[in-house]
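User: Teach me something about this protein's shape.
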Amino acid sequence: MFSGEVADPDSGPRNPFIENTMMIGSLIIALIFFKYVPILVAKGTLGVPPAEAERAGIELLNASMAWSAVEGLVKIILIIGYMLTIRAIFREIRRVFQYHGAEHKTINAYEAGVPLTVNDIEAYPTFHPRCGTSFMFAVILFSLLFAMMFPLITWWIAGDPRLALKIWVRLILHIIFLPIISAFGYEFIRLTARLNPNGLVMRFLTWPGRFFQKITALEPERDMLEVALVSMRHAMGIENPEPEKDISSAP
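Assistant: First, the predicted structure itself:
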């Protein structure tokens, strides 16, 4: 909404009711598809272990781990399917993903210390380890790890570990722990900034992000690189925000 206002300041007054309704509706849809549906699939696929008291503890923990794995897999499938679908259907979204790739190329060049010209940044990759797409995967990963421990949480809070495999209780726990899970994902992304980008550890930690960014950070056109350069110069407070013209980029 903010970027839309900057791009078109004369678009007219905003309608808070419509904006808030759209925002709430989007949140509800996201919770249904990326929280509720994975839990339903996990329950339908794996079921709930028997209720014998002497077996409930370890079986519930194992069941929660299995549920978490299925939930994580379903979330990944839904997110990949969603991104591929909107990229294929909407030409504008594909262009947004190309601008995303231009942004990454520009940041990679800036961090490498090379001159910020179209020719210089064009050779850099569209992958960047501290991308929002990689952050999204990190949130899914930590969500999976937290969800495995839900029986211990319900046992500690209510004295009943079986509550962790009730759909609505599990959904509420996912929502409650989302800020904490997001914080872990954010710190994970910050950690990757301190590692050798070409090291084996870094490659192992970032390969899921590399895969996801094949979908969301596409190879840009040259004019997109020029836009990314201007944006970078403005964002970093660099003098002369207009990109240096390369002879090869002239019309």
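Now, about its shape. The mean pLDDT is 83. The CA atoms of residues 34 and 72 lie 9 Å apart. If you'd like, I can walk through any region in more detail.
User: That's plenty for now, thanks!
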